[in-house]
């Protein structure tokens, strides 16, 4: 079994992969609502959420309000919650954001799932009342999650971690290049101060032009005008001009062009898509847990 998916008992999937990949599976249910929860998983977490929403519905029912009906469309692209008549999408829960799904062992109508909101990043628990098909809907969501994860791996998800490591290495190289440049500037500044000091301490009757000082590597320090005015050697011959450095191609401290993980072939992705892939990887890595549990714990719940 895929490590990103877990369930307590081995159960047979309800639908063919094509039905969830190329189409969607519709279900009708009553929507008790959604509420924020502190954790992405846990039987106690959803049990408290179900009790809270059931109680709220009892209050509204006593005021004459009916539980709204919705249509669920389940596919590998997510779980859509729509208004049955207008087909207006009320919620669109992507599968990699769904972390926990459970149905009631005793009341075959009630099922729930926890989904991380795409805007607030808060965990929301959605609770539904179906016509005795809660377990089937739960399994359908589980099957869609499993298919979506496999499709994600086939379409490049395996490379996400490698790309992140390469990006981190590239960032380290850029930091080293910056540090190296700062050190070079400091050396040039110190050499410039040294030359100034030597000129100011020369005999008063005339200024003695000092030969260019050398750095710790016995090399003449770089001068911005060295490529325009070749420096004469001490024996009178001309030194070869220093080749100008192209500003168009940046190179790392090893003389090689920095590797760009987002621009090295047709199989790579731009940063915005890469960010989405990272998010999907984290969601699938957390996994989806399916559970059958008991939500009705007191007389109030049993009357739902």
Please outline the helices and strands.
Blueprint: E1 5-7, H1 17-21, E2 25-37, H2 43-62, E3 69-75, E4 78-82, E5 89-93, E6 98-104, E7 110-116, E8 123-130, H3 134-154, H4 160-200, H5 271-286, E9 288-293, H6 299-302
Parallel strand pairs: 1-9, 6-9
Antiparallel strand pairs: 2-3, 2-8, 3-4, 4-5, 6-7, 7-8
Polypeptide structure, described:
There is one protein chain. It is elongated and about 100 Å long. Strands 1-9-6-7-8-2-3-4-5 form a nine-stranded mixed β-sheet, sandwiched between helices. It contains six helices and nine strands; from the N terminus they run βαβαββββββαααβα. With 304 residues, the protein is of the alpha+beta class. A hairpin with a 6-residue loop joins β4 (78-82) and β5.
Which features does this protein show?
alpha+beta; 9-stranded mixed beta sheet; 35% helix; disordered C terminus
Number of strands: 9
Query: Structural class from helices and strands?
Result: alpha+beta
Q: Identify the overall geometry.
A: elongated
Mean pLDDT across all residues, rounded? 75
* Secondary-structure element string: EHEHEEEEEEHHHEH
The major pleated sheet works out as: 9 strands, mixed
Q: Can you give the helix content as a percent range?
A: 25-40%
Concise overview:
With 304 residues, the chain is α+β, with helices and mostly antiparallel strands. Helix content is 35%, strand content 20%.
């Amino acid at each position: 079994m895929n490590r990103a998916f877990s369930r307590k008992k081995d159960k047979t999937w309800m639908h063919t992969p094509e039905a969830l990949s190329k189409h969607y599976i519709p279900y009708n249910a009553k929507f008790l609502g959604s509420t924020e929860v502190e954790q992405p998983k846990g039987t106690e977490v959803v049990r408290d959420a179900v009790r809270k929403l059931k109680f709220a519905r009892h209050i509204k029912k006593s005021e004459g309000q009916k539980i709204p009906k919705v249509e669920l469309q389940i596919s590998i692209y997510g779980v859509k919650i729509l208004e049955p008549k207008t087909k207006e999408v009320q919620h669109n829960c992507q599968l990699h954001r769904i972390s926990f799904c459970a149905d009631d062992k005793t009341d075959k109508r009630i099922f729930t799932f926890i989904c991380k909101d795409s805007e607030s990043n808060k965990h929301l628990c959605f609770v539904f009342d179906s016509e005795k098909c809660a377990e089937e809907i739960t399994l359908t969501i589980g099957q869609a999650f499993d298919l979506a994860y496999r499709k994600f791996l086939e379409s490049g998800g395996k490379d996400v971690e490698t790309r992140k490591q390469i990006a981190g290495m590239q960032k380290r190289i850029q930091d080293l290049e910056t540090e190296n440049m700062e050190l070079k500037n400091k050396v040039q500044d110190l050499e410039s101060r040294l030359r100034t000091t030597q000129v100011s301490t020369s005999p008063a009757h005339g200024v003695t032009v000092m030969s260019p000082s050398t750095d710790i590597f016995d090399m003449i320090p770089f001068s911005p005008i060295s490529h325009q005015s070749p420096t004469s050697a001490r024996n009178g011959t001309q030194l070869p001009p220093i080749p100008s450095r192209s500003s168009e191609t940046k190179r790392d401290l090893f003389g090689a062009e920095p590797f760009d993980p987002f621009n090295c072939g047709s199989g790579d992705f731009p940063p915005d898509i890469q960010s989405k892939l990272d998010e999907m990887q984290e969601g699938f890595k957390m996994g989806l847990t399916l559970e059958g549990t008991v939500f009705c714990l007191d007389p109030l719940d049993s009357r739902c």
